[in-house]
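New here. Invent one.

***
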Amino acid sequence: MAEPNKQSGKARRRRRTVLKTSGLAATGFLAGCLGSGDGGTLTLGGTLPLSGAYADTAVFIEDAYRQWEQDVNDDGGLLGQEVEVIIEDDQSEPAEGVSKLNRLISQEGVDLLIGGYPGSTAAGQMQSADENNMVYVSMGGHMKSFEQGFEYVFGAPPLMGQWWYDGFFNWLEQQPESEWPTSAAAITVDNPVGQAVYESVTENLDRLGIPFDMDERYNLPLDSAQGLVSSAESEGSEIFFANGFFGDGVQTIQAIHDTGYEPKAVLQGIGTLTPAWEAELGELGDYVVSGTSMHPDLPFEGIDRLNEIAEEEYNRGTTSEYFLFGYSWMQTLQQGVEGAGELDQGMIRDWLRNNCVETVGGEYCFDDRGLPDPIEYVTQVRDGVARLVGPEDVATHEMAYPWYEQF
C-alpha cells in the first residue's frame, strides 16, 4: 500500500499517464549513440506499473518523473533541448515491462531510458538496456541484479535488501555488549525480496555472534502470523525480524502485541515507511525499526523543495520515498548526459562510472557494478511516522531501545 493519491486539479492536469508515440525521435539510430542535440525534442521512455498490484506505489515515481520533466524544461531543457517523458503501463507484469521497454528502444527510438519499478521488473529491464548499450538508472532488483556484469546500469540509489538492517546493527554494535540481544527469531516471506532482506539479517547476526532460536519461511498470502510469533515468544528470542511486506507485517506486529511477546527489538522489512502503517496499527506500530536508502528528512540540497511540492502540488502531508527515488534517478541520468555533453550512451556510461553525482538522496559514486557505497540509513516509527534514527550525521531522533520498554 502507499499514500493516498489526493492530487490538486493543477497536478492532475499536468500529469500525462501515457503519452502517445507520435512525434518520437526517429528510429534507426545506433543504440550506442542516440540523438544529436540539434534542437529537436529529446524523448525518454520506460514503463511503470500504472495498473495492477504495484500501481499504488508507482504513482509516486510517475509524479517524480513528471516533476523532473517540468523542472528541466522550465530550466531550458537537457543539452538545450526540450524533453518529453514517455511512460507506458506494464500492468505490474515484469515480462510486459521488458517487452514494452524493448519496443521503446527498437521501434520508437527513444533517446534515453527511464528506470522501472518494482525490482522484479527493473532486473529484467537492466538486461535489456545493457544488451542495447543504453544507460539505465533505477532501483535495480537487489544485489543479484547488479552482479551480472552489466556495463550500463546504475542504482542511484538502489533499493537493496542486502543493506536493509545494516544501519541498525551498526547502531547496536556501538552499545554495551551487555545490552545486545542474545538470540534471534526471523520469519521471512519466501520470495526474492524476502531473501534479499534475509541476507542482511544473517550477515549481521554472524558479525555480532547472535544465534538464531527460530528461522522460518512463509508464503503469501499469510493466513495468520499468530503461530509464527507464538513460536518466537516461546523461544524467548530477544530480537525479532519480520522480513516481509506491508500486509503481512501489519499482521505480525498485531500478533506480537496480542501474544505479549517482548523482544528487545522488532525489525520489519517493507511497510513501515507508508502512512498506511499508522492507519492500520495506530500506536501499536510505533518503535518498529526498518531500513531505507531514501528519506524526506535527509539534509541534502533540493529535498526541502520536493517536500514542499509534495504538500502544495499534490496535497500530501508527507513525501513518499518513492517520489524522491524517482527524482534522484532522473537527476543521475541528467548529470550523466550533461557530463558527457552529448547523447552518446557509452560516454554517458563512462562519465557516470568516473564521476560522482549529487542528488536529493546525497552523493553517489559508482563501482564497477553500478552501485554506490552501501547506504545504511535506519528508521524507527515514532508517533506513526518512520523517523531517521541513524547514522548520527543524518538522524533526527534517537533510537528508542529496548522495544518492550516503550509501551
